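Changelog-linked ticket: flavin-adenine dinucleotide example.
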Amino acid sequence: MRRDYEYIVLGLGGWGSAAAYWLSRRAGADVLGLEQYELGHVRGESQDHSRIIRLSYHTPEYVELAKHAYRAWADIERDAGQQLVLRTGGLDFAPRESAIPLASYSGSMDAAGVPYEHLDAAEIRRRWPVIKATDDIHGLFQPESGIAMAARGNAAHLRMAREHGATLLDGTPVEAIHPRDGEIDVAAGGVMYRCRRLIIAAGAWTNGALTHLGMRLPLRVTKEQVTYFATPHAAEFEPGRFPVWIWMDDPCFYGFPVFGEPGPKAGQDAGGLETDPVTRTFEPDRAALGRTIAFLEQYIPRALGPTIYTKTCLYTLTPDRDFVLDRLPAHPEITVGVGGGHGYKFASLMGQILSELAIDGRTERNIEPFRIDRAILQLENPPVNYMV
Ligand SMILES: Cc1cc2nc3c(=O)[nH]c(=O)nc-3n(C[C@H](O)[C@H](O)[C@H](O)COP(=O)(O)OP(=O)(O)OC[C@H]3O[C@@H](n4cnc5c(N)ncnc54)[C@H](O)[C@@H]3O)c2cc1C
């Protein structure tokens, strides 16, 4: 049994499966991926039919990164021979004075040269009669937005990583990490592995992994949820007729056309209660579901119908909601990635960047905003702002 690898990836969720894939494209059989649960499990952040992918973002840096995210998805789509992104168009809409100003989104897209349309309420109602936009509402429409097919994307990254030679082990929790003399001992599932470079893509368990290195980040793990509704008007919510959407106010809601289940999906962003990834339950939060239903009753009532199911899922929130994507200052041979509750759209790109940091020690992409030593991550109780 082989125990010595050049690269180990800790965690094979959305970002880790992508990291294993991108590493394996360059390093083949020198890649080992370790996952504590079964591959494709539902205890983390990445396993559902759909996640929103969009160029529309609040800073030009994210918009630029999102352009590269589409390219990374296109690469794995070609390699895997499978569609993983579905463009539906995306509507960001809100009252004129909203908690999340649309101006930062339009300004960022202007700066990054991304085309979009600014729509008033009448135009929103004309294009999507199912959206009951009152006259104080306006929106931004970006045609490239759509669905990143999360479960399918994860499976594609894992399958192709194996095809490129990687070894992926499930049911193998990492229990200890010891960097020494330029190498790293990684104890997992009762076996001691060794590598030269380690990528930590542990989502809600990140601090559990960093503890072995004497580190802790001010992360907050919440139990979030999305609900599929069996609307009797499903045809009006098919992709092509209905976009992905985000309500840019506080509370912030978002939703999808019909995809993967026989009805549209909606949920509240960052509306969940704090939890622990190990002791969490899978019980839906009735109050959060009530808030989502009340929003839909007001603005998209024809989306409602009997609940097909509510799916719970974790967010790993940084205080500023920016990612962590960096090599550890004290151990540059170890790289960490954390998605901040909006990272799936970037999963393949993040895997590519993590692999570049591990192999080359650098990346062409601008990851400066995601430094692990940024000031807010040094605070024990930092101020938080999730409305971005
Ligand atoms: C309800 C919901 C809706 C979302 N909507 C969107 C959206 O529309 N668009 C978007 O871009 N993003 C969205 N996100 C966020 C996005 O899904 C996450 O940012 C992304 O999936 C994070 O992936 P990850 O790999 O960091 O975490 P995970 O997928 O949770 O992977 C971490 C993995 O590490 C494993 N692990 C941890 N510790 C160990 C250990 N010690 N040993 C071995 N394995 C270990 C875990 O078991 C897990 O499999 C949403 C998230 C949720 C919950």
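Closing comment: Example verified and attached. The radius of gyration is 21 Å. The longest helix spans residues 60-80.
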